[in-house]
Fold this protein.
Amino acid sequence: LDVRTEAVRLRTQAAFRLGELGEAADAAQALLDRLGGQAPSYPGRLRVLAVSVVAAAELARYEQALGHLQQMLSAASRGSLEDYVRARGTAASCFALLGDPWAGQRLLSELLGMFQGLPSEALLEAVARNNHAGVCMLVARLARDADDAEGCAEALDHAEASLQRSRELVQLTGDARLGAFVDVHASEAMLLRGHAAAAIGPLQAAADH
């Protein structure tokens, strides 16, 4: 791999983390175009595709988002469990951004059924659980805004089940950053249930991370 290719890859990642979504989407597309027929063998391809899918979906560039999502899912089906989890998480985020978080929720629920509680899977399951909780929180907010109290409560139940398991996995993995995300989601769940005072503790814990 040449230096220019790696420079564009790093620019893609940096722009995405800085919230410069247009730059991230453009750089990802440019890198994949540059690789051409070599793209399937490029080691960082799935990460670049993941950035492209989410950034493009945020920008309503549907053709780019869905095209790269299809490529990512196809590649991940032949890759590792980590590839598979990343691809499904990206797909769920994409569906949520495109206005269908329920599809993302179903996709992640199916993914969670694959884990067998093995220590070797702990970090991947924690990431999947956190993503699931995040999508469920979005579903809960939409239900609340639609005055669907039952739908909101059901989505929160699903979110809190994943958060409880995530806390166990954070203890196993020692991943403080993931623990902070769990605390933030838990606080939002308490706020949506009307327990504002109880949300302060997890929020402070997230700030301390």
Observations:
- Residues 149-173 form the longest helix (25 residues).
